[in-house]
Amino acid sequence: MSIDWSWIGDHTDDLTTLTLSHLQAALSAVFFGLLISLPLAVVAHRIRPLRGLLLGLSNVLFTIPSIAIFVLLLPVSGLTRTTTVIGLTIYTLVVLLRNTVEGLDSVPAKTKEAAKAMGTRPFRTLLTVELPLALPVIMAGVRIATVMSISLVSVATYIGDGGLGQLFTDGFQRNYPTPVIVGVALTLLLALVADALLVALQYVLTPWTHRKQRAA
Amino acid sequence: MYELFKNLGDWLVSGEQWSGSDGIGHRLAEHLQYSLLATLVAAAIALPLGLLIGHTGRGAFLAINLASFGRALPTVGLVVLVFLASGLSMWPVYVALVALAVPAIVTNTYAGMTAVDPDVKDAARGQGMRWHQVLFQVELPLALPLIMTGLRLALIQVVATATIAAYVSFGGLGRYVFDGLAQRDLVQVLGGAVLVAVVAVALDLALSALQRALFRHRPA
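^ inputs. structure came back:
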């Protein structure tokens, strides 16, 4: 099995298009995943009985094979990008929901009491105290969800989407390894770069975790 | 929607669906065979590695990054790649499933080992225990709950992903998903998906029951 380098040179435009489409699908899924998990996590954090139910439900969704989720969505949204994004979003929920709940749990009770004592309203406490303090744990979830989504996009190749995953079916059908190797390499590269950027984003968003102590 | 679920019910309970070489019984056995064998092989590779990294503290960088790499590796691509290299054999299925399971087990084993209180390890060494005694009689039992979590996580993922065996013309419950996809037969796809999810949840519950039974004697 050897790489046909000239194929790569001939297909740089296609590869760019596929990579961007791949990235767009994965990032949309994480975005919508966050949009859904944040309110659900607040509910699960505040109302204990719902916590087990919501986390259990997201765990069960995670056990459904991804290819099956895509196919089952076909009657709803057809062979479209929407199907890909909905399917991927469902998978991000298990990580994002659990990490956001754990992040909110990790905020010390005394900090919340202090906010209350200063007359901060509950919703404002959530936005300005709890969520920022939960951010490191939430971001850990976002990193896992992003890398996982980038890897999973290729499964959508079975429903005619799938970004770089199209290179896998192409190589499979033509018995030609080059596109497959390139697809795997680009997926790994994309995941690596996205993860590094998220680490940088977290560094910027949580300055208090690494700010130098000023001398008194 | 109602009709779909009614048809699904009929599909799941009909006698002919359960018998024969394309029956649920046979496909279920194949699916379990792929999943359990792959998880066992992965555990045989990952457990010693995780214990070694955790015990010596060397290679922690590897343990942490392996998890990220494992998550990033596209399973479909790996299956096709091994298929093109090896031809029609079980290799693509097992390589992909083992590659999926190893990182989850290594990372959790390592995490369990690092969570062991250093004072406890010091005390064990201070009592004159050899390194293997510290590892197997102190660290391993204390790390076991997290190690089990890793094994359960790996097994769930492997069971869900073993569906892909059908893509390279093998059996398992994925047959229903891929055949249903080819025939635009949603009931069959849904049936396959439900069966896979049930198997994954059932195995997870069984392992967690086993875990509880094993640790019943231990004070919390």
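Chain B touches chain A at residues 68-69, 71-78, 80-81, 83-85, 156, 159-161, 163-164, 174, 177-178, 180-181, 186, 189-190, 192-193, 196-197, 200-201, 204 (CB under 8 Å). The radius of gyration of chain B is 21 Å.
thumbs up if we can close this ticket
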